[in-house]
Amino acid sequence: MSFKVLLKKDWKQVSILWMLLVVLSVIVFTVPAWTQLEDFNREIENIRANPSSFEGVPLDASNLPNRWFFESGDSVGMLYNGLMSLIPMGMVIFLYVVFGLLMASVLIGGERNSQMSDFSMSLPFTRTQLYISKWLIGASGFVVATLLGGPLLMAIIHLSDFSFLIQPKDLEVSIMILFMMLTGISVFSISLWMGSFGGESISQALWSFVALLFPIGIVTLIEGSLYTFERFVDVSYSLTQMWMESIPLRVISPLANVFNIDTYDIFRSNGLWEDFVTVAPLSALASIVISFGLGLWAFNRAPQENNGRFFMFSNWLWLVHLVMVLTFGMLGGILLSAVTFSPNMVLYIIGFVLGGFIAHLLAKRLLYRFNLKLKS
Amino acid sequence: MLTVQQLSKTIDRQQVLEDIDFTVNSGEIIALVGRNGAGKTTLLRTMVGIIRPDKGDVRYGPSSIFEKAELKRDVIFVPDSADALKHYTINEAAALYESIYPGFNRSVFRETLTRYNIDNKKIRQLSKGQKAMVTLSLAFAVQAKYYLLDEPTDGLDVVAKSDVLKLMIAQVEARNCSIIVSSHQLHELERIADRIIMIEKGRVKAVMSLDEARETSVKLQVVFNEQVPVELLERKDIEVINVTGRVALFMAKERTKELDTFVDAHDPMLIEEIPMSLEDIFRVQLGGEASVF
Hints:
The structure holds two protein chains of two kinds. By secondary structure, chain A is mostly helical.
């Protein structure tokens, strides 16, 4: 009996999504770069044909090499950020986020929805082995997708008329691609962790969504709330700014990690590149390690009899309930106080009570009554 | 030997299992009976390590199932539906079992499928009876020592039920394995079970052989000289099945001298002891209505 059996079983569950991820990644890595290279050609032809329309472009532009247009500073705006605009980081990360959530929800939540979860737990494997197998299958999807898509992207740039953009930056682009892969794996790991206590697939997907937004969302809510009480404006601004750019936030929130990257100048500024390379990939890696560890811990302790519930750890329902009431209360307060031109404390309190009450009703239904009554 | 020790489990603040204690020997078929919601499925799921108990242990030999996952190689749980493998074809499912369980005997599995004319297709495309046969055949081809079967004949037609029961008996005879089977089909369990474990509200009410159970309770048909005495009908320790004229058919939870004296005191014309079925024992011991079976 080998561990491969578990991989085979999990592969059967997630194979379609896995293959779709790989195929779509190849498309998302290469097609935008391809069309961007075409755009470069068109734009350069346009500049060469009408040099007088562009500030700083000599009239004999037709003799200028392609490289010149990318090194001429801001005057030829769209070409200034040439290399970065060839790397479809946003699209790839969006794809990875979607597939991270989907694959994790199928691997754990989908299993809980069917009797497969009981079947798995009755096999001669430990829960740790079950969890590791799921993680390996999912993570391998991002590795393969990136290992196929990334080099293809680099090859397309290398083989184009604009290869000079990448030639001195091969290592940097490789690191950037590696970062995208780590971000995908970290989103997947977080979503898999959410599956260790979300009792079925929809609950897991909702928890994953919350986990991705919560670290940024809670700061925004606190900042918005403090803003209502005007005397705290300065404090809240400096605190939230500090938190938004902090390494702990970048570790717990893959999205914050991505949003903190200054992509506009990253390949031109050594300082920005060093900031990126020393913080972003390592934060993503730390996020993977932490979420994998917490997921494994929770998966081992999840009460299997609570399959089908929104939140499986019944001892902690009170805390989830409290956090829901507080966050929705703050949201309600901010929304209502924003009705007037200047922040209004009374309206904030009314909105807080209303939002909190609605959240309380929602929490009662979701946390205590929602139960798909799954046997597995 | 399988030993269930002081097993307790609370779910949603309700005590689903409470101090469950029993042992199962090699070669035994144990019938797990109890009303709906008595905790039978939870007990089976705990016995295979799917659910962790709040208290107590389940030991196969000297080891706890909650500490040694490898023990599950010899413990097969068959749930009441084949949903887990519905996306697998029969051959894929067999390959999966073969790779998990070293003792899996493909020829035994094939033989059963051939006997019941089941072709290789996705499990979800099979009829309910075929699904049951496939899941049981897969389980029995593993050649494990312990089988925990949850409602294996639920919803099957009479022929399929009979086949399932034959399959179970054949396994015990051939390999001396132990089967713990939960079912509401009491007349079937009666034919195959060595012992009965009665579960009531999460507690073991009784562990006994069918003969012992029959000795404990009694079913009497009494013909009285006059009308059936009202005092008999009002007794709390009996369950009256039928009263027709001077004839009363009733069961008593326990065979007591007091009951015998009571009946004798009312000058009966005829007292006949009727053999008790498992269903009768279930009704009189667990207070079940026929409709809940």
